[in-house]
Design a protein that fits this description.
Blueprint lengths: L2 H7 L2 E2 L2 E2 L4 E3 L5 E3 L2 E4 L6 E6 L9 E5 L4 E5 L1 H8 L5 H13 L2 E8 L2 E9 L3
Parallel strand pairs: 8-9
Antiparallel strand pairs: 1-2, 3-4, 5-6, 6-7, 7-8, 9-10
Length: about 120
C-alpha cells in the first residue's frame, strides 16, 4: 500500500486528519482545523477552532451568525457551560452585546463563576 493510500485508510492526508480536531505535522507542528458544531450559547450551527493565541487555557473560538460574530471560550469555561453549571441565557446576552459593540469577547472561569472579558476586536 502506498503512503498516500495508507494515510487515507486511517483518515488522514499529508497535512493531518481529514476532519475535526487538530493534527500533528511532521516535526511536531500542530494543524488547527475548523469544525461545524452547535454554538455553545444558542445551539445554531457555528464554526469552532482552537485559539492558537491562548493555548495555555485550551481556548476555542466560535463564529456564530446568530450571535453576530466571533467569541472565545477557555477550556475550563467550556466545561462549565457543557456541564450546565452556568446560566447560558445571561452569558449569551453579554457576549452578543460585546459582539454588537465590535468587541471580541472571551468567556472565562473566574473562581467558578463566568467572566466575559474583551480580548480584541471583531474582524471586519
Amino acid at each position: 500500500m502506498a503512503h498516500s493510500e495508507l494515510l487515507l485508510a486511517i483518515g488522514c492526508n499529508a497535512q493531518g486528519p481529514l476532519s475535526g480536531g487538530s493534527g500533528i505535522r511532521p516535526g511536531g507542528q500542530t494543524v488547527s482545523t475548523t469544525e461545524a458544531v452547535p454554538c455553545l450559547l444558542c445551539a445554531v450551527l457555528a464554526r469552532r477552532w482552537l485559539d492558537r493565541q491562548d493555548r495555555l487555557r485550551d481556548s476555542r473560538i466560535y463564529r456564530c451568525a446568530a450571535c453576530g460574530g466571533r467569541f472565545a471560550v477557555t477550556g475550563d469555561a467550556l466545561g462549565a457551560i457543557e456541564q450546565g453549571r452556568w446560566d447560558v441565557a445571561e452569558l449569551k446576552a453579554v457576549v452578543r452585546q460585546n459582539i454588537a459593540s465590535g468587541v471580541l469577547p472571551r468567556i472565562e472561569d473566574a473562581d467558578g463563576r463566568p467572566s466575559v472579558i474583551a480580548i480584541g476586536r471583531q474582524a471586519s
